[in-house]
UniProtKB/TrEMBL annotation:
Native organism: Candidatus Anaerobiospirillum pullistercoris
Protein name: Exo-1,3-beta-glucanase D
Keywords tagged on the record: Cell membrane, Cell wall biogenesis/degradation, Glycoprotein, Glycosidase, Hydrolase, Membrane, Signal-anchor, Transmembrane, Transmembrane helix
Membrane topology designation: Single-pass type II membrane protein
Entry-linked Gene3D superfamilies: Glycosidases (3.20.20.80)
């Protein structure tokens, strides 16, 4: 396959409150785990069905193709098959996505985005502030069974690019960088207190077993993708035997907001220095031993917002532009985004491709609350000519 110029279909089948706050209206839930537990069953069923029907349709695949996108990364939940109460399965929507992708000439990376009892404690992990998945053997086995069933169902589908084992399992470094328990407080303090980061040793074992469960069901050329757990340099000796693992791809997620959280100053010189002197050499080194995709990235940064977002924390985290924040003009923001886009695209081209996060967002980016947040939306980035790469 040619270089992947992709987009994520986040917030369709795995909800993230910040991306469409209205989906959580009338509920005090911060995540998908508690949404059905805080509203009536009928309300939950109706709003989920309406959201899924309206958020992504066949028309979106037409628009994606028109933007130059040739692949989509599709996050799916662990309850995709409809066998976990009180959630509603979404396998029919996945079937539709695969069919639409095939018709319009796109490929699909199926990404298991959540795990029972949380693999990271992020809101995008399904249950905020809870990271107990790897401590629970039954949850680990259930995750493996979901992966195997996805491989059985789609392993020979013409549109399948590959299957991603699990999204963003957090290890100790990112746990500390994000100050995770404080940034994503658990609704149930006991569940939060029993949470802890996954170990690399566990992930090495889990990824190997997952590969062995997935690969027998894949047609030749289909990929098994594993996430770097925010430890890009920890995989130099992992699955490097091309005879044993001929179809493995490493996925890394690289956000400037994460670099900010790690101490990178919020100015153009510091961003570019970080990209050139830190990320690019590391990325190049990993690309020597693995096929690498940047499965999530965007142009969002605090400089273009005009205020300190404290590592990409939104109004839902209690962080928003204050009255003294200087709003940048469209021309100023465009210049920032295009320069940063060029620098990042140069790195992604060392590997086999990238997927922008995200295809769309549904908050009102015209309000001061979300000042500068529209760069998360691929459609808006294209409309405002923020991409420097002709492929978009």
């Amino acid at each position: 396959m040619s270089f992947i110029n992709g987009a994520n279909l986040g917030n369709w089948l795995v909800l993230e409150k910040w991306m469409s706050p209205q989906t959580f209206s009338g509920s005090d839930a911060d995540d998908e785990f508690y949404l059905p537990r805080t509203i009536s069953r009928d309300d939950y069923v109706n709003r989920i069905r309406q959201h899924r029907a309206e958020y992504i349709s066949e028309r979106d695949f037409v628009l994606l193709r028109g933007m130059g996108v040739n692949s989509v990364r599709l996050p799916v939940p662990y309850f995709v098959f409809g066998d976990v109460e009180p959630f509603i399965g979404c396998i029919e929507e996945v079937d539709n996505a695969m069919r639409w992708a095939e018709y319009y000439g796109l490929t699909v990376l199926l990404d298991l985005h959540t795990a029972p009892w949380g693999q990271n404690g992020f809101d995008n992990g399904g249950i905020q502030g809870v990271c107990q998945w790897s401590q629970r053997p039954d949850a680990v086995e259930f995750t493996l069974s979901v992966l195997e069933r996805l491989a059985q169902r789609y392993g020979h589908h013409p549109a399948l690019y590959g299957i991603e084992i699990i999204n963003e399992p957090v290890t100790e470094g990112m746990w500390k960088c994000m100050n995770l328990p404080a940034r994503y407080p658990a609704r149930d303090p006991e569940l939060g207190a029993a949470s802890k980061p996954n170990t690399l040793e566990f992930l090495y074992s889990f990824y190997t077993e997952a590969y062995d469960r997935i690969n027998p069901h894949l047609a030749e050329g289909k990929k098994v993708v594993f996430h770097d757990a925010f430890e890009l340099m920890a995989w130099q000796d992992f699955m490097t035997d091309k005879q044993r693992y001929p179809n493995v791809v490493l996925d890394t997620h690289q956000y400037l907001m994460t670099a900010e959280a790690g101490g990178v100053a919020q100015n153009m010189e510091s961003y570019l220095s970080y990209l050139k002197n830190k990320l690019q050499p590391d990325y190049a080194a990993v690309c020597k031993v693995h096929d690498v995709i940047c499965g999530e990235w965007c142009m969002f940064n605090s400089l273009a917002c005009g205020y300190d977002t404290k590592g990409g924390q939104s109004v839902l985290n209690g962080v928003e532009a204050d009255s003294s924040a200087k709003g940048l003009s469209l021309e100023e923001r465009t210049a920032i985004y295009r320069e940063l886009c060029a620098a990042q695209m140069g790195i992604w081209h060392l590997g086999v491709g990238h997927y922008y996060w995200n295809y769309k967002i549904l908050f009102d980016a015209t309000t001061k609350t979300w000042q500068g947040w529209d760069s998360w939306d691929l459609g808006r980035c294209v409309a405002f000519n923020w991409f420097c790469d002709s492929q978009h």
